[in-house]
Design the sequence.
């Protein structure tokens, strides 16, 4: 076990230290890996799920004992959109709890100096005041369609806070808004709203379809952050922030789902009609993060939404043949 209450002052991370990115093949993990490589980190360590099952507690402890990472980003998680979360709540709760508890416990045992836990903005109440401040966590009922995933992420935040209290390790948590970009999941049944819309409109263009039908009313408001911006924010927080409270990571502005659909249609070249299936759920009416804490730490988003979507569409089209169904 680590010595209690380690003295720590945020600053530049050692580019030669062993740095484990859990979930380095996922949307966020791969972006963080790319950024760390470009920043000159030479001790990066990653394992695929086939190489290391993070649900296997002994395997995770053995891995940490063997590699002894100084820094860790915990970006590994079972993720999905409204349909997947609503259909498989047991999977989202159980698997994410196992992953988090195993990695965080093993990191404590190995004395990991600096760890960033990646959460999700779904931790906040469905009807939280807008924009949502970090202090709004655990002040109201969660969105029922993804409450199981949210509870797992809340547990991760609390475990990080508990580690800080019990052992004094300078671990932190970051709560991203809706993320998108290269490496996203474009599966029709497992994706989040933006990649699902990109695939739907792009396939409509390819097939010559005259209409596209989307879930809900199109009225909910959402905030979107490019994953490369998210990676930049994570490194910035690891080098400039130390505190028990999670930090919201977003742009501080939002748009309606209808506006997003219109933008994607324009980007992919769809000129037909968009229809809305109002029998399907909308989810949370609005989810806009207050990012003042992040701004106070010296970071703001750089990638505009339309530019980000154009690059994401280009990536999707370049990799369409190899994406999961």
Sequence:
């Amino acid at each position: 076990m680590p010595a209690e209450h380690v003295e720590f002052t945020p600053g530049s991370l050692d580019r030669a230290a062993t740095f484990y990115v859990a979930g380095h093949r996922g949307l966020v993990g791969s972006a963080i890996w790319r950024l760390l490589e470009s920043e000159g980190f030479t001790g990066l360590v990653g394992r695929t799920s086939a190489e290391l099952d993070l649900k296997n507690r002994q395997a995770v402890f053995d891995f940490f004992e063997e590699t002894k990472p100084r820094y860790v980003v915990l970006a590994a998680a079972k993720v999905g959109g409204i349909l997947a979360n609503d259909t498989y709540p047991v999977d989202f709760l159980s698997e994410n709890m196992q992953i988090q508890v195993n990695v965080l416990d093993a990191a404590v045992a190995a004395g990991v100096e600096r760890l960033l836990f990646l959460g999700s903005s779904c931790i906040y109440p469905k009807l939280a005041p807008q924009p949502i401040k970090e202090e709004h966590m655990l002040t109201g009922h969660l969105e029922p369609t993804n409450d199981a995933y949210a509870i797992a992420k809340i547990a991760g935040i609390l475990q990080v806070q508990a580690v800080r209290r019990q052992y004094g390790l300078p671990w932190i948590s970051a709560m991203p808004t809706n993320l998108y970009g290269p490496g996203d999941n474009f599966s029709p049944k497992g994706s989040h709203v933006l990649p699902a819309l990109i695939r739907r409109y792009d396939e409509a263009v390819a097939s010559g379809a005259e209409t596209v039908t989307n879930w809900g009313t199109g009225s909910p408001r959402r905030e979107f952050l490019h994953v490369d911006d998210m990676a930049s924010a994570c490194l910035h927080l690891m080098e400039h922030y130390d505190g028990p409270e999670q930090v919201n990571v977003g742009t501080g502005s939002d748009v309606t789902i209808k506006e997003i659909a219109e933008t994607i249609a324009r980007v992919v070249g769809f000129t037909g009609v968009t229809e809305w299936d109002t029998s399907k759920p909308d989810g949370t009416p609005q989810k806009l993060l207050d990012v003042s804490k992040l701004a106070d730490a010296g970071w703001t988003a750089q990638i505009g939404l339309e530019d980000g979507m154009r690059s994401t569409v280009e990536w999707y089209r370049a990799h369409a043949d190899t994406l999961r169904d």
Remarks:
- The longest strand covers residues 18-22.
- The domain at 18-183+224-251+289-302 is CATH 3.40.50.720 (Rossmann fold).
